[in-house]
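Form 7-S
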Amino acid sequence: MTMSDKFGPYQKLLKRAHQIALVSTACETLNWDLETSMPSKALDFRAEQLAHFGGMKHRSFTAKSTGEWISACEQHGFETDSLEAANVREWRRLYGRATKIPPSLVEKFERTRAHARAAWREARKKSEFKIFRPYFEKLVDLNRRRADSWGFAETPYDALLAEFEPGARTAQVKTLFAELRTELVPLLTAASERSAAIPKDILQGNYPIATQQRLNHKIAEAIGFDFQAGRIDTTTHPFCTTLGPFDNRLTTRYNEQDFTQSLYGILHEVGHGLYEQGLPAEHFGTPLGTAASLGLHESQSRLWENHVGRDPAFWDRWHPVACDHFPELKRLTPPQLAAAVNRVSPSFIRVEADQVTYDLHIIVRFEIEVRLIQGELAVRDVPGFWNEEFEKMLGLKVTDDSQGCLQDIHWSLGDMGYFPTYTLGNLNAAQLMHQAKLDDPNLNKDLAAGKYDSLLKWLRDKVHRHGLRYLPQDLIQQTTGKPTGVANHVDYLRQKFAAV
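Output:
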């Protein structure tokens, strides 16, 4: 019997965490249904459901008794590096944030973002920002109120960033992004020149959706995704969500002229799904059963999507299978197919961006978010500011809001502070992959042979199984020997896209 088995307040916290997890996963199920199959006339009631359950979760966690049990556990003195101490540390941090937010604000936020998603989908379809604008204005205001309630060291954006990346600061992210941008600009020129000989439409063809789905399923399963504990559906914007310890949902969208759009969407979301499926199920609902951060989560998706899925060795292995599904691909050799999916050229859509330009997309969004939250940019001016900054950063003139500021779902979810984690994920992915190859000299050979279990086992051991036992930067430090930085990511991009 462990200390936690004997200590009543800790057991009460575990019970409450389980009860909150039941409500949280019910909310996630409602959100998943909203995105995949809910009839449009159900929106008002669905918004009320989400607001109600959001308030219920908040009231349960912020109850006075929760705080008393946390204090009792702190006084009890679990060993510093114990599992119990990690849960208590995170419960204290989360309780401290949650108790600063009134339930009425939680409910209003949930209600507003449910309606905002529907408005965003309509606005994106019609490419009319004005449809989404009033909802976005409400969400920006609500996020400012949340930031003010939480408190912050230097900028209100710090408080929002902490929701997704505990311990991160806006100033640190700005420094990393400035260093990365300096490296990417000359690299983009060299990589674009190398890609100039690859026709833009080289992959254009006829790829029936049903056949794409079969290929995507086959590759996802080979990489390690457990379809007895997950599934794939279709949405406007690809995402991954967890509805329970053995219920992980992936989504993607399809282009019948280019099968790689759905495939790489799935490889990205499978990375998220593998992380969720690798978290310890026995700790579901507690910090120990929760991913360390979005920057770690995105590292998993970017690692499988790019370091594995866009490596030439991937297409040496999967070219024959792809040709079985789409015979017209026989016109391309494996190196040609690999070159096509690694073609570097500035483009409008983030989720379809090449590896060199991807982070520039994120920097644009990050700078907009910081200005919005600090009151330096009005929502009405977002399309114009976006278009100007995008042209400066990527040299493309945006003429369509659906290809510009309306392309991503995140702002309609109220997720201000999320976007930086994509680039933090790229940086973490490069460091983790670099370390994995140092730890396992046979890793490249295994991946080339389509044996993905060795990499997955390494990630499960170094990242997944820990949940939130360690803060994200502590986990990266202990796994790779250094904090998150740009060096490995830039070296990887140079070697892949600019090496002579």
